[in-house]
Amino acid sequence: MSITATNTYSNREEEVRSTLSKEQAILRIKSFGGKFNPNFADFDVYDQLLVCESVSETDKYIKEKENGSNYENVIGTYKRGVDSSLNENKLEVIGGLSVSTYKTPIFILANLLESLFKDYNSRPGHWFYIARSYSPRTINRVIAHMIKEYGINWRGIENPAAYFTFLIKYRKKRKRR
């Protein structure tokens, strides 16, 4: 009787961070056809790898759907497809948000947020209010949290724009000294 040690991780991020070195993660990013960008402050090499894996899974799903596979899960509900160009647009917008600082004009932040969540209805001026009320660092942290939890396509979130607003409005506050 042999005893095997099994590592159980609560999510994919923990598994990637504990099993791969940074060099291995960069090689995996390149194997997915991506490019590692060290200039993203809020997205380190492991976060970028998770995004590349998510985009790759989406591309596989789209190919299966185009080949005639109905791609249903156990319950029998249909999973909605995602356009890969949408993923590239999201990555560009997230990259634009990640390099923004407190000196970035509010209307640019509002335009980036609006283009990120353009598929979902929101009130006029809502993204301007978010950009005015919260710092770019806070906005980036909430988006990074959503990507870590649900992937770049935000699978499982019915309305990502509303969920983003909820998270940023009721986020954990810093402790006062």
Account of the 3D structure:
The chain is globular and about 40 Å long. The chain contains eight helices and no strands. The chain has one domain. The model is unreliable at 71-75 (pLDDT under 50). The N and C termini lie far apart (55 Å). The protein has 177 residues and is an all-alpha fold.
Q: Beta fraction of the residues? A: under 5%
Number of discrete domains: 1
Q: What's the total count of β strands?
A: 0
What is the typical, i.e. mean, pLDDT?
77
Q: What is the SS-derived class?
A: mainly alpha
End-to-end distance: 55 Å
Q: State the order of secondary-structure elements, H for helix, E for strand.
A: HHHHHHHH
Distinct helical segment count: 8
Q: Which shape, going by the Cα principal axes?
A: globular
Please compute the radius of gyration using only Cα atoms.
Answer: 18 Å
Largest sheet: none
Report low-confidence residues grouped into runs of 5 or more.
71-75
Helical coverage, percent range: 55-70%
